[in-house]
């Protein structure tokens, strides 16, 4: 199921080589937001992010990143991580996931750790109590283990909206990554920063074109009408599944 969202280490190496050839500087997600706020951003700045917390980040991606001396930001679904029985385990693809015990060394390697919810739901269909748990709990668990502030959140499936963003801000995150398949820019929404989702069908040529600002649009502010309609549809299905009198708000 995740095959469309994977590339081989050899292809990843080609991508990082292209970033270097095009003279890109790579920073973490929070560093990008900090330099945007300070107006010190260079136009050739890229952020490499990974969602979910699969084990092959440490086995395959990190060695290639380190060879290029590029940092990245890793968004973890805390309920899916292996080990750490005290960490409110959810059922998930645990055999493929990173282990809690590996996280300190990832931080030491320069990887920024962000949160990607606790159980990977469609956040914009949840009740207030569920939404509170999915945004607050991963931050608390990660900060307890890492001893550093977890500043950024990535929306599972990219789904968010004004209500979800309120919970993100309230939990203490200062940025959030969406999907949107567009280029982010200085006036992008810091609680729904656009990302380009690299998939296995993308050619190296497409990747190189992205680095030249081609083959994807700049991010627009606000939600498209079809995004709102699609959320209403998914939320309608979620409410039908819930008991009457739930605390959806
Ligand atoms: Zn995800």
Shape: globular
Tell me the name of the CATH class: Alpha Beta
Main sheet: strand order: 3-4-5
Radius of gyration: 18 Å
The unreliable regions are none
The CATH superfamily title: Glycoside hydrolase/deacetylase
Please state the oligomeric state of the protein chains shown.
single chain
Order of helices and strands: HEHEEHEHEHEHEEHH
**Count of spatially separate domains:** 1
User: Structural class, please?
Assistant: alpha/beta
The proportion of residues forming helix, as a percent range, comes to 25-40%
Give the helix tally.
Answer: 8
CATH fold node name:
TIM Barrel
Number of β-strand runs = 8
Strand content: 5-15%
CATH architecture tag: Alpha-Beta Barrel
Task: Provide the residue-averaged pLDDT.
Answer: 90
N-to-C CA distance: 32 Å
Name the bound molecules.
zinc ion
Keywords: Signal
Protein name: Polysaccharide deacetylase family protein
Subcellular location: Secreted
Main location: secreted
What would your notes on this structure say?
The structure is a single chain. This protein is of the alpha/beta class and 249 residues long. It has a single domain, classed as Glycoside hydrolase/deacetylase (TIM Barrel), CATH 3.20.20. It has a three-stranded parallel β-sheet. A three-stranded parallel β-sheet has the order 6-7-8, sandwiched between helices. A two-stranded parallel sheet has the order 1-2. The longest helix has 19 residues. The site of zinc ion (ZN) has 5 residues, from strand 3. Keywords: Signal. Its main location: secreted. It is found in: Secreted. InterPro entries: Glyco_hydro/deAcase_b/a-brl, NODB_dom, Polysacch_Deacetylase. This is Polysaccharide deacetylase family protein.
